[in-house]
Amino acid sequence: MSNKDIREKMKHYRLLHWEVANQIGISDGRLSVWLRTPLTDERKKRVEEAINILKVKISN
Question: What is each CA distance from 52 to 13, 25, 55, 58, in whole angstroms?
Answer without folding.
Answer: 10, 15, 5, 10
